[in-house]
Specification:
Layout: E1 6-10, H1 15-28, E2 40-43, H2 51-55, H3 63-75, E3 78-82, H4 92-98, H5 106-116, E4 126-130, H6 133-137, H7 142-147, E5 151-153, H8 157-172, H9 176-192, E6 197-200, H10 203-212, E7 220-221, H11 223-237
Parallel strand pairs: 1-2, 1-3, 4-5, 4-6, 6-7
Helix pairs in contact: 1-11, 5-11, 8-9, 8-10, 9-10
């Protein structure tokens, strides 16, 4: 029996988001029995330094720890790698240069999902980005959305400080109820300012909204789900 093609997952950022991504991949597979599921190898090591703090200049560089994970996934036989952390993609080029196998870009997968989604005639979506300050300052999403001709809104500094940041870190502390309520307020602020569709561009956001405001998910694209679909297409192509 030949070795299976393995989807590698560079996780731990955070560990709950990694488990949520694996759940998204499991659900996307449409498998009817164990043997039809996507085989994975996961590096779920949460001691990787905080990406948000690093980009703000107040924390240790996470790149060496992420490179160690990439090395381990390559050595384990991964045929591709997914990183279910949006902010970690600020180091995407360095990580890709270090890997023998392709690393899927979560933003590219998300833009592809946005372009494939049906839209009402004569009505272009206005996307509300829910993301970390670091991801926004690095323009991880903005540059790709602009290239695709998609209009977007970003949170204000006050919304980031009052809703998003405490909500995100509450989820990381497994206070999903409190974190979800704060992240829902962040989403509602964008909708109130004219967003018609949300991109949940931090992997903790969907976790919180599923708990606190599941009705908002109908207006949302979840990058973790888009990334899972990219992994599934790669695996099916064989």
């Amino acid at each position: 029996m030949s070795a299976p093609r393995l989807v590698g997952v560079l996780g731990g950022m955070g560990p709950l988001a990694t488990l949520d991504f694996l759940q998204r991949l499991l659900e996307a597979s449409g498998a009817r029995r164990d043997q039809e599921h996507v085989p994975t190898v996961t590096w779920n090591v949460p001691q990787i330094p905080d990406r948000q703090l690093a980009l703000a200049g107040g924390g240790a560089d996470p790149l060496p720890a992420m490179l160690q994970g990439i090395e381990r996934l390559n050595a384990a036989g991964a045929s591709c790698i997914a990183i279910p952390c949006n902010t970690a993609h600020a180091w995407y080029e360095a990580l890709s240069a270090h890997s023998r196998v392709p690393i899927f870009h979560i933003v590219d997968a998300t833009v592809q999902a946005l372009q494939a989604a049906p839209q009402p005639p004569h009505s272009a979506p206005r996307i509300g980005l829910i993301a970390t300050r670091g991801a926004l300052e690095q323009r991880l999403y903005q540059s790709r959305l602009e290239a695709a001709g998609l209009e977007y809104l970003v949170p204000t500094a006050q919304e980031l400080d009052q809703f998003f940041m405490p909500g995100c870190y509450a989820i990381k502390a497994h206070d999903i109820a409190s974190g979800g309520r704060l992240l829902a307020l962040s989403a509602e602020a964008l909708l109130a300012r004219g967003a018609t569709q949300l991109v949940l561009a931090c992997t903790e956001v969907a976790i919180g909204l599923r708990h606190a405001a599941p009705e908002l998910l109908a207006l949302s694209v979840d990058p973790a789900s888009a990334l899972a679909q990219a992994c599934l297409r790669h695996w099916k192509q064989g």
